[in-house]
Records
---
Amino acid sequence: MKSTIIPSLLSATFFLFFHNANSQQIVDIRFNLYADSVKTTIDNYINVEGKLSNGRYIPLTEKEISFSSDYGRWKGNCLLIDKKDNLNAIKITASLKSNPEIQKSTTVYVQKYDDPGYYLTEQDYMNQLRKRQQRSRRL
C-alpha cells in the first residue's frame, strides 16, 4: 500500500508544481529598446518584455504581441523603415494578443545621418583621410 501512495503523491506534487510554473499570466508589458533611435533600411528589432504575475520578466515575440506603428512595416518584432521619407519620430504600439487591453506605446526617433551599414576597415579609413587631405590642400 505504501509503495503506491508515495509515487502517486510525488506525481501529484510534481504535476501541481509544473502546472503552477507554466500558468503564470502576463500582467503587464514594457519596451526594452536596445537603442534610443531606429535606422532606415535595416531591420530594427523592437524588444518587448512581459511581466508575469510572479514578478519575473520574459521576452515576447510576434506570437504573443501585436505590433503597430504610424509608419513602416513589420516583419515579426522588426520594424522596417524606408529611407525615402523624412521622418523625425515613429510611434510604436505593442498589445498583448491574449488580452488587448494590456498595451504600451512609445515614440522612437529616426536617425538622420547616413549610416554606411558597416564599420570602416583600416584601408577605407586611410582612403577617406587621403581624400580629406587632398581637399584641404586645394583650398
---
Amino acid sequence: MEETKRTKKSKNNKTRKTLKIVGYVMCSIMLIALAVTAVFAIKLNVLPAILLIILVAMGLVVTGIFVICQRWLIAGVITKVLAFAMTLVMILSCVYMHVTHNALSKMTGVSTQISNIHVYVLVEDPAQELKDVADYGFGILSNLDRENTDKVIENINKELKREITDIEYSNVLSLVDALYSGEINAIILNSAYISFVTGTEGYEDFESRIRSVSSQEIVEEVVANENDKDIEYNGDEVVAIYISGNDCVGVPEINGNSDVNILLIANLQTRQILLISTPRDYYVPLSVSNGQKDKLTHAGAYGINVSVDTLELLYDVEIDDYVKMNFTGFIEIIDALGGVSVYSEYDFYMENNTLHYHKGYNDLDGYQALMFARNRGAFSDGDRQRGKNQMAVIEAMIKKMATSDMLKNYTEVLDAISGSMITSMSYDEISNLVKFQLNNMQSWEVLKYSVNGTDSFNTCYSVGGSVYVMEPDYATVEQAKEYIDQMYEGKKITISQ
C-alpha cells in the first residue's frame, strides 16, 4: 500500500516536472515570438517608439509571470494556454506586418510612369504584325508626345533594319482622318490619346475601328515636383495631396486620362480635411500647353506631374504629394472589404435599368460602386455630380476600412490596394502619418467642396477640334482658393456649398 502511494507520488512529481518543462519551453517560444514581433514592428516603423517600448516591456513582464506560474499546477496550466494563445496572436501580427510592409513598399515612393505606344492599322487591314507594315506610310503627331514617338521610330527602324516613311500631322484628329482616308496606312500613337479621339463627336467608334500590330512600353522618370519634400507629420503642418483616378486597365503607373481630380488639404492641428473636386472636363490651360486650354482630364495622359502642375496653376497652391488610383482596381478592393455603404443624393437607374441606386445609403459591391462613381449621364449636373459621387465612394471605403471587415480580409485588401494605387509619398512619410494618428486619436472632420462651371464646346490643345468642355465658374474657383487659404492659416472652416 505504502509502495503504491510512493509510486503514485513519484508519477505525480514526474508529471508536474514534465508540465513545468513544457511550460518553460512554451514561455521560451513566447519570448522568441515577442522578439520577432518587435523586429517586425521596428521594420514596419508605424508604432510610436514609446508605445513599442511599453508593449515590449509588458510582453517581458507577462512572460516572467508565466514562468513563475509554472511552479503551481493550475496556474501553470492556465498560463500555458495563455502563452500558446499569445504566441499565435504574435505570429499572426507578424504576418500582418509583413503584408503591410510589402504593400506600402510597393505603393510608396513611385518615381516612374509608363507610356504605351502602338502602331495601329484599321481593323480590315490584312497586316498582323510589324513586318507586314514595313512599306506603309506611318502617320505621327508633329508635336504631341514627340520624344516617345521618336524613340519608337528608332526601335522600329532597328527591328525592320530599314527606315520607315513617316508623315507628320499637327493634331490627333488630322492624324485619324488621314488613316480613315487612306492617305496613310498606319499610325504611331500613345494609347492614352485614344480617348482624345473617342471623346470627339463623330469619332466615338475610333477605338473599335483600329487594332494594334506592334506596341512598345516606354518607362520614364516622373519629373519631381519642386514642392515635393519629406513631411514629418509632427502635428503642425498643413499638407496638400492630389488624388488622381482613372479607368486605365493595368498597373497604375500607366499614363492615362485622369477622371478623378481631388485636391486634399489636411490641417494636422485643426484636424480638418478639405476635399476639393474639380470636374474632369474643366477647360483650363495645362502646364505643357503654352497657355492653350484643354480638358483637365487630358493632363493625366502626359503624366501625373502635369496634372499636379495644372492644378497648382488653377488653385495657386503648392501640392506636396500625389496619390494615383486605378478606379477599376476599386472593384477588387471593395469586394475584399465585403462591399461598402455609399450615400446617393438621387434615385437613378443604370445599365439598361439593371442597376438601381436609391436616394440615401446603398449597399454596393465593387462593380456597383464603380458604376456609381462613373455615371454622369443620369444627372442634370453631369460631371459635377459624378465628382460628388466619387468622393462619396472614397469616403465609404475609408469608413469601411475602419471596421472589423478590414481585418477579416486584411491580406486581400492590401493586395488589391497595392495593385491599384501608387503615391509619391515616401515610406517614412506614411509611417510618420500613422504614428501621428496613433499618438493623437482624435477624429477628423472631412469637408467637401466642388467647383462649378457651364457646359460648352471649344477647341482643345490635345485634340485640335471642338469638343465638350466645362467652362469654369471662377467664382467657385476663388471660393475654393479662399477655403485653401483658411486651411493654411489654421482657421476652422465651414462649407457653404
---
Amino acid sequence: MNRAAFFDIDGTLTEKPSLELRYFRVLQREGKLGLQNGIAWLAEAARLAAKGPTYVQHGNKAYLRGIRSTGLRANRAADDAPFFPEAVECVARHARNGERIVILTGTLEFLADGIAEKLRAEMLKRNVAAEIHVCATRLEESDGRWTGRLLGQPMFGEAKGIAVWWYAEKWKLNRAECSAYGDSGLDEWMLASVGKPVAANPDSRLRATALRQRWGIVSWAREVRPKKKLAKMVPESAR
C-alpha cells in the first residue's frame, strides 16, 4: 500500500488543552517546576526571540531542564486527553484500507508516544490492524533527565510539510492518494503536501485557507461524558 494518513494531535485527535499544557500542569501540581525552570525558559526565550513568537512558543522547552525523563507523568497527561470519537473512527477507516497512520505533531515525542499507545488500544477494540508511527518534537536527554534542548527542529509549520515529503520518499508513497488532518494554520504545510487534505475543527486561519483551496472541512464533536456529580449519584451496578 503506497498511501498514508497523517494526523495532528492537539485539537485534531484529542480535545484541547494541549498535551504539553496538561503535562505542565501535572508537573506544577507535583511541585517539580521551580524558579530555576522559569529562569531557564526566559533565558531561552530571549535567545530565540529573533525567530519570532511562534518559534519561541514551539521551540522553547528549557523549562523542562532537569526534569526526570522517566515516570508516569507523561502517561497521565495522555490519559487525561480525550479523543474525539469521530477522529478515532477516521483513523480506523484509514487503517482498514491498509494505510499507514502517522501522528505528525508539534507536541513532545514522549507525550505523542502515549497517544499512539492509546490509539493502538482503540484499534484493537475494533479488531483493526494498524501501523501507527510518531513524528514529533524531540528532546535531548542526559542521565535520565531532560536537558531542555531540542534534538533537531520543533515539528510545526513548514517542518510538518517536510516530514510528509520525507515519509513519501522513505515509503514510496503516492502523495496524491495520501490524507492529512489538522486543526491549525500551522498545519497548512502538512495539508498542502497531500492530495486529500482535511481541516478538522479548524481555527479561523485554517478554515479560510481550506475554503480557498477547497480542502475538506470536518467538525468532530467532543465525547459526551456524564458530569462527575451526576455519575456519583448512579449506583455502581447500574453503570
